[in-house]
Amino acid sequence: MKVLHIIPSISPKLGGPTQVVLNLVKALRIEGIDVEIATTNDDDGNLLDVPLCQCVEYQEVPVWFFPRNAQIKAFLPSFTFTQWLWQNIKNYDILDNHYLFSYLPSCAAVIAQWQKIPYTIRTMGQLAPWALAQSQLKKQVYTSLIERRNLNKSAAIHCTSIGEMEDVINFEVKTPKIVLPLGVIPPVFIHDAKQQLRNKYGISPNIPIILFLSRLHYKKRPELLIEALGNLLKNNCNFHLIIAGSGEDIYVNSLQEQVKSLNLANKTSFVGFVSGYEKDLLLQGANLFVLPTYSENFGIALAEAMVSGLPIITTPGVQIAPEIAQAEAGIIIDGEIASLTQAIAHLLNTPQLRQQMGENGRQFALQQYSWTNIAKQLATAYQTIINQ
């Protein structure tokens, strides 16, 4: 079996989606599946310094990089990719397309239909009501011209949660659905993470650290978290906020100005994009993880926080929110400032509850979000589709 995963970009700056495709392909290859990735050289607005139009080893997996013809947000066309796929698609038994409303996966689906190669689609939360409301008219036109046919002609839609499957059904897609969560890799344990983290950022040992680790984008609502902490500051609450992630300069600057205006500058650290050991240090050294996002199809950052033993505060817009609540691994709020402020205050004042929620989440993530188990089930699904 030979499989090609197609995704518009695997820029490290994109966070979760990039980690997911790389880790999933690694896990599938461990299971003996011959898997490659096709993508562009986009680096979230810049360009990756990688060889083009040849299969290279990147982050321990085989990747074909094709030149991005223009940076049109997530659309990222690559005409070289189109020509290459038309000539080479018969070398693959099945395609696995990541994303909607983007050139590479849309183009791949059309070529697959012409050349009668089965393909699956990962909607990546893009059929959630909040996501569909963004650039609504463009998406409606794109859907009527291309995307609805691509969805209905696919062999299966891969959903990462029941909530995502319901969004696909509500979009009136009749294609079979596969519900498989995403996985996380348990971090290497850092025995003195809390002390190391506090030493690094000059934080007193007795001050709880609140972590926001995600792409800095208005969808994730870091400004709501900052506003809530401004309210808590008035009540003399002790905390230190670490904001980890990258985003557009204008937006990041607006967050920094908000922090200053609420007198939180000496209680906040903007640490930028993190990975590897630095990321593990943040996840293991912090006391509380907060992501008041509008919408997440899975929320890989939340799963990483859980497997690291961090209690969580997030919203019903995260489609694994029911699992987080059922595991008693965190607090699900309604996304309003009052409920967020109250939830943070509650966990700051109850360290034993934080510890218990963190351990609940760690055990749940270890059992449910195993890349090995997910890869085995996905490989079986691929084989069933090919046989049919």
3D architecture notes:
The chain has 388 residues and is α/β, with parallel strands linked by helices. The chain contains 15 helices and 16 strands. The chain has an 8-stranded mixed beta sheet, sandwiched between helices. The chain has a 6-stranded parallel beta sheet with strand order 13-12-11-14-15-16, with helices on both faces. It is globular, with a radius of gyration of 21 Å. It starts with a strand and ends with a helix.
Summary tags:
388 residues; alpha/beta; 45% helix; 17% strand; globular
Structural class: alpha/beta
How is the quaternary structure best described? Answer: single chain
Number of strands: 16
Beta-strand percent range: 15-25%
C-alpha termini separation: 14 Å
- Count every helix, treating DSSP H or I runs of 4 or more residues as helices: 15
Helix content: 40-55%
Major β-sheet strand ordering: 5-6-2-1-7-8-9-10
Contiguous runs where pLDDT drops below 50 for at least 5 residues: none
Shape: globular
**Can you give the mean pLDDT?**
95
For the largest beta-sheet, the strand count, sense and barrel status come to: 8 strands, mixed
